[in-house]
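Appendix B, record 7
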Amino acid sequence: MNANLWLLVACQGLFFTNNVTFIAINGLVGLSLAPLGWMATLPVMGYVVGGALSTGLVARTQKHYGRKTSFQIGLLVGSLSALLCAWAAYTSSFWLLVTATVIAGYYNANAQLYRFAAAELAEPSMREKAVSLVTAGGLIGAIAGPNLASATKSMTTVPFAGAYFALAIVAVAGMALLAFIQFPPPPEKSKAGGGRSLSEIARQPTFIVAAGAGALGYGVMNLLMAATHIAMQTCGLPFSDAALVLQWHVIGMFAPGFFTGHLIKRLGTMNVLWLGLLLNVGCVVVALLGVELQHFEIALFLLGVGWNFLFTASTALSLSTYRPEERDKAQGALNFCVFAVMAMSSFASGVLVTSQGWAWLNMGSLVPLGLTGAGLLWLTLKQPPKPASA
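Structure tokens (predicted):
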């Protein structure tokens, strides 16, 4: 793996440091500022919805300015939006906070393309491993994010305003790292808007399954993860137990990134997708067996690993569905699917777990998992996968 790729891994780590911290504190600040209790999660939803709304703009920016400049613009937006969030906290303006998080969604949508850029920094035979390795960079953020929030939440007289200032600095650090990365020049046809139309690309069975598996896998993960702390509190488990469960979940999400690429090369992309789906089903089974600490711990760890396999393998699968000159619109569409499903699952999670309970929420998650399995079976029967590489 080359130096450019390792720098991108570090950028991914900084992005997830911001991502984890941003999501963690937005709900708390929103709760303190919201006019009504049910509005408390609107800043969290704003971040996801802003990402969905930004995918088209990000695709155009990537096409016209290239990877490095577009990523730098995204980080600049991330830094400025964090400062705007800090100002909203200082002025106790709930709607300014929501607006700032929607703007920050542009940064989120931009940085979600790091995994595709990783494939371009590696040799063709190493693309799957490169995608997997950059995904593993999220482990840095998973560890650093909560610690950053804890260390900076009381830096100023306004709770969490210091954390927003810290997020602005982290984004600037990402800009500094990106300055040293040399990305391949964009394809000439991409500048001229060449290639097939998005509708033609999106009609391919492989693209449909790649988009569906990535989006639904992310949606199920978000649906169950976001509801876990509420479910554990309802079951009488202390916050320290919830923190432990979420820690193992995050380890499950990102640690496999160090070997998922090897599994894809050895077992084949479709087999890793099936394995990710089975791990998610295993999560639901364990969750339905009981509500003791060990049930939550094992279930959320399986959920994390299952997400990693589905998300990494679906990204690898999508790489074969578009030509170089089509990459920006195709990758924008893939990310839009992820953000759209995440927005719906973010809203549904709190509503379902408080009204229907943890068991019914898990049983409901079998619906998107069933759709994922149907898609994988359809593609397997329609286009049998090539033998896995040794």
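Remarks on this record: The chain is about 80% helix and 0% strand. The CA atoms of residues 268 and 388 lie 4 Å apart.
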